[in-house]
Structures are given as C-alpha cells and as structure tokens.
C-alpha cells in the first residue's frame, strides 16, 4: 500500500496544476479517515472546504457530511483555518 505523503502533496497543491482541488480533497479525506496520520476533523474540514472552494463538488458533499458531526467550536476552528490558508496562498 502506498503511503500518503502529506508534505509533498501540500507543496504540490500550493504550486498549482490541474488537480489542485482533488489534491485538497485527498488531504481532507486523509485527515478524516486517519490514513497515514491521526484523525483530525478540524484539518479534514479545512482541506475539504478549500477543495470545495477550488471547485471540487465531491469535497463539498464530504464537507457537509463531516460538518454535521462536528461541534460548533471545531467547525469554527476549521473555517478560520481555511480562511487563513486561503489568505496566505
């Protein structure tokens, strides 16, 4: 089984390319499922939100499903993290 390399994926996603939204979606799924990392719903929502903003319809659906399971505090943290990331990149 191939290991998901977060650092290379994040770097690739930030530099551009045709698959940016899909890469962000994959990062959200990685955190949501704990694939190669600890499960982190805040980070999962953050990356799914960014993917949705970039045009990934699948990420928008997954984000909505995840948001329904999150606390208001975690959701606020995730939205803030996505906003900060979008501002910087």
Automatic annotation (TrEMBL):
InterPro entries named in the record: TPR-like_helical_dom_sf
SUPFAM superfamilies named among the record's database cross-references: HCP-like
Name of the featured protein: Sel1 repeat family protein
């Amino acid at each position: 089984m191939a290991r998901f390399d977060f650092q290379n994926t994040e770097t690739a996603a930030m530099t551009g390319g045709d698959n940016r939204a899909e890469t962000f979606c994959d990062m959200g799924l990685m955190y949501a499922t704990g694939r190669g990392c600890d499960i982190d719903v805040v980070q999962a929502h953050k990356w799914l939100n960014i993917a949705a903003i970039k045009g990934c319809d699948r990420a928008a659906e997954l984000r909505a499903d995840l948001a329904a399971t999150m606390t208001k505090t975690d959701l606020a943290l995730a939205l803030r993290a996505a906003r900060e990331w979008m501002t910087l990149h």
